[in-house]
Design a protein that fits this description.
397 residues, alpha+beta, 2 domains, two-stranded antiparallel ribbon, 12 helices, 14 strands
């Protein structure tokens, strides 16, 4: 009987309940998209660092964990490798470049191949040692250790944005001194999404990276291989805290941190995430208040109906179950429409927009929105159940 009464009222007032469903759906979409945008921007800044194949990252001392400022030489890496508990070490460096999608003449002149050529794509050029920590795992193709010196691995973002496939030749443009230089490289492997500081990544063998990377006229060439950081793989990953202290004590002039500390120290990361988290939680809080307010108003408007039910003999239990069932039905339908609409809307966005739905953020938002409706209804029903039938119907003397 209670469920029948709840569904019957919804069918009799389709317009009003559809409007409530639509409001719940729109609030759900807003909450989910704010959460997904926060996750996407965080991922765009940390994907590569978060998925490194080593547990620790070694920076130069006193550079405040800045990737561009840090310098780690081959001699330091050899010292790290000799520390007990270290399984392997790989040097990693970062530079900026651009992928161009036109033919380049021997003189360095770009020749358009189509009437509407693709614009250049800014990328991060990541220099890694083949077969060492820092080289990403490939989803398809070959690793750098089994390829030619001009072979590179691209992350999925490059493939999605420009349609590049295994075996394609790509052209990288960098600045050497005051002139632009172009380098032809072959895609031998594809990795997962591994952006670094908001740019898609191209992973290049270190010796090739040294040739390709941007250089100034006054750049000093050294015999020692120098990188920005070193990635350390441990024999026992659970001992990373102790190993970080041991490395700093035995090697000296280095700072060793885990991956999470490294990407959280990136410029602007903490401020960006703090702002987005504030927006996310305030949006969720406001959405909860709005939905709760709507259901409270809807419940309080049913004074006459509840009075009629009581007058014909309905118990408080029937009234409560009927009202709560109706709220749950409408609320669930609104959240379902909002969640499905968010997913379909996300599919229409270009890959450049960093929107990522994660189970944790989606689950938190949906559970909160699903719970607030029944809770708000219970708060209102507590006062409604005290109403006398004749008073509610306006027949009391």
């Amino acid at each position: 009987m209670p469920l029948y009464l709840a569904i019957k009222e919804v069918l009799q007032n389709k317009g009003r309940f559809f409007l409530i469903c639509l409001i719940v759906a729109l609030i759900t979409t807003l909450v989910l998209f704010i959460a997904a945008l926060a996750e996407g921007l965080a991922a765009a800044n940390k994907e590569y660092i978060e998925n490194l194949t080593g547990e620790l990252i070694v920076f130069q001392e006193n550079v405040e964990l800045s990737f561009p400022s840090s310098r780690i030489g081959r001699s330091t890496v050899n010292e790290i490798r000799r520390v007990k508990g270290v399984a392997d070490v790989g040097q990693v460096s970062f530079a900026s470049g651009a992928l161009v999608f036109e033919q380049v003449s021997p003189e360095g002149v770009i020749i358009p191949t189509t009437a509407t050529p693709q614009p250049p794509l800014d990328v991060t050029l990541v220099g890694v040692e083949p077969g060492r920590p820092g080289e990403p795992a490939v989803l398809s193709g070959a690793s750098l250790g089994r390829s030619r010196s001009d072979g590179v691995i691209i992350d999925a973002n490059v493939a999605l944005r420009r349609g590049i496939q295994l075996g394609d030749m790509i052209t990288i443009k960098t600045t050497q001194g005051t002139s632009e230089e172009f380098y032809e490289l072959m895609v031998v492997g594809m990795a997962d999404k591994l952006q670094f500081q908001f740019l898609p990544s191209i992973f290049i063998p270190y010796t090739t990276w040294e040739k390709v990377r941007p250089k100034a006229n006054n750049s000093v060439e050294t015999d020692e291989l120098v990188s920005n950081v070193a990635v350390v793989k441990l024999a026992d990953p659970s001992q990373w805290r102790q190993m970080a202290l041991r490395l700093e004590e035995q090697v000296g002039k280095i700072e060793v941190v885990d991956r999470v500390t490294a990407y959280k120290a990136s410029p602007g990361y903490a401020a960006q995430q703090s702002t987005l988290d504030t927006q996310r939680y305030f949006t969720l809080f406001i959405g909860i208040l709005v939905i709760g307010g709507f259901f409270q108003i809807q419940t309080l408007q049913k004074v006459a109906q509840i009075g009629m039910l009581k007058a014909i003999g309905a118990s408080n239990t029937v009234v409560v179950i009927s009202a709560i069932a109706q709220i749950i039905l409408v609320n669930c339908l609104g959240v379902l429409i909002g969640g499905l609409g968010s997913y379909l809307l996300q599919l229409s966005f270009p890959v450049e927009i960093p929107v990522i739905f994660t189970g944790r953020s989606v689950g938190t938002a949906i559970i909160s929105l699903l719970l607030i409706g029944p809770i708000s209804g219970l708060v209102s029903l507590r006062s409604l159940l005290k109403v006398e039938p004749l008073t509610a119907l306006g027949l009391a003397q």
